[in-house]
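ENTRY TYPE: paired fold submission
RECORD: A
CONTENT: sequence, then structure tokens
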Amino acid sequence: MKISSKGRYAVSAMIDLAMHEKKGPLTIADISEKQNISLSYLEQIFAELRKAGLVRGTRGPGGGYRLACSADEITVAKVMEALGERRQNVNLMGDRYVPFEMWKGLSQQIYDFLSNITLQQCIDRVSQEQSTVSTTTEVFQKEASGNQRAA
């Protein structure tokens, strides 16, 4: 399985949609601006995601995109497959030192790994890391203010 920038952008955009789900549809322009990804490139990606049934579009004022099902039903591998990434092996050619079967096996291992990670798990991980950063920042701020008082 090959993981391209297109695949990474698609996963990031899908996580963004999932995080925004309770607030309503999200426009591609909002995602483009927030993540600094070309609008036309995102439009191509979303056409493929829509065709695969992973997102739904709503037209008109207040329109945009939403996930077609819950974030805990969509795996990272499904997003990659929607873009045709499953069909591409890590390295299609073996060489005299590394046989093709090894690359094929590595591709399968990557696919299996990504098949077990849902968008919801990604969101949970991000939330956990942000709370850890916030807690660490608070501790450092308290220590810094305590040291300033002692000086």
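RECORD: B
CONTENT: sequence, then structure tokens
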Amino acid sequence: MNKKSIIALTAAAAITVGLGAGSLAWFTSTATSAGNKFTTGTLNITQQVENWKDVGQKQVAVDNMQPGDQKILPFTISNGTSTLGLKYKIELKAETPGVGVPNLLDVAKFELKLKGVSLTSGITFDELKTYLAQNIKVLDANNTSDSYEIVITIPEETGNTYMGGQGTFEINTKATQNNVDASFNF
């Protein structure tokens, strides 16, 4: 077979395959599922610290406390506009008074109340700090909150060493989404 014959046969075969493929008709259909949207939720914790109060719930200044005095610091933790439930913990951070000023956090006794129920009583600042760090609380989504009170007492047996003293601390609240494993370190 010569070269021209091979080329002619190859061309004829290609045309035949092309015509055959074009003559087959397959039915087709397409379905579309539009709008398959997904979103993430929001996590927004707020902390509102109110003014100091006395045991009668009257707003008071906390200057010039004396042994036996008791003051209340109310504060509220809220998930505000969160669309997700959340876990939170409260951390306390002591601030050191100026040089030569006695630190009342060393002598004061603390009580923590949640929604009016006493959780601790007569403990030191460090014990309160540890208690709060170990207790993670949960808030559901959409404007739920926990109302706390820290009751601070200057013990009657406090001596002159603490005259002119000062106690200052920060309250920090940290939160994460509710479904995070308990081992998560926030």
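NOTES ON RECORD B: The chain has a mean pLDDT of 82. The longest strand covers residues 86-95.
STATUS: closed
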